[in-house]
Amino acid sequence: MAENIPDWKIFTGSLEPHNDLARLPEAPPWRPFGRNAKLIPPKDSVGVDADLDYALARTFRASPPMIEAVNTALYLRRPLLVTGKPGNGKSSLIRAVARELRLGPVLRWSITSKSTLRDGLYLYDALGRLDEQKRSGKEKDDTDIGKFVELGPLGTALLPTDWPRALLIDEIDKSDLDLPNDLLNIFEEGEFSIPELARANVARKDQSIPVRTWRRQEETSIVKGYVRCTHFPFVVMTSNREREFAPAFVRRCIRISIEEPDPTMLADIVRSHFDEPTKTKAEQLIAQFLEDRNSKELATDQLLNAVYLIFRTGTEFSENEKKQLIEKLYKPISGPDATR
Questions:
Q1: Is the dihedral of CA 156, 160, 161, 167 positive or negative?
Q2: Is the entire prediction scored with pTM above 0.90?
Q3: Domains (range + CATH), the chain
Q4: Most buried of 130, 137, 270, 294, CB within 10 angstroms?
């Protein structure tokens, strides 16, 4: 009987697009998303590699712990908090998931110390609207207010859809102390309101107002200023371990730490970006990278830069030139020597 039971893992790391997300079971009782909403796969596209995120995902290699963490987040409808050193592929993981599960282009919210919850939800150009009202003389009907509202990446991810979206909240450890706590209610309820739209005096009977989504990719309608997701988006938050988070925030996340790739994985990463012959040629570079990594902090993309410059530019470097180039590329990314 066990042989007939399908593998619980929906994301497998194969990078081959499929619709298996449709077999995701109903959310846990404490995560009431999509109770009466069926998962309907997106229509087949001309080619997933036409999307940059999907194309870049082809080179990512997910480890077994990453695959388990992703599937746990999918089943429990929880955000995934990915920690690790810079350059270890934290933000690349979501590309791989979006490609395999056909979640569409990744919505990105790059966090700074000045980022607020509203920045992620929506932007409202109040001055632009006031200027247009003065020029047109329209003040009674707010039907056109949607022209001045653009949903942010988080707001777009929470729109009601037949298939979840993928949202990257990048470097959340750089945020103001309040932002992680401000996200708690959003992650719990999967909803938010836009007061400017809720207060609008709209002539339409259904009280809907068309607005633009993140980066004006498409248009959607907001009814009475209220947005609630039907399917919780797949959310990845990355952290470079520059700060600790409050327990209330951490317990609402599925957590995984991406460790530095071992020699086998490094060789696989090089092969995925280039080819087997180049990987063979690069064995010395990989060995040097591993040796240097024992004494200083390096990122995997520094190795890829070295492989590309030395073996894929069509230039014949002498051994001395290779040595000098490697010394420049394998500089530590942190510590007193990082800026030298």
A1: positive
A2: no
A3: 2-258 (3.40.50.300), 263-329 (no CATH)
A4: 270
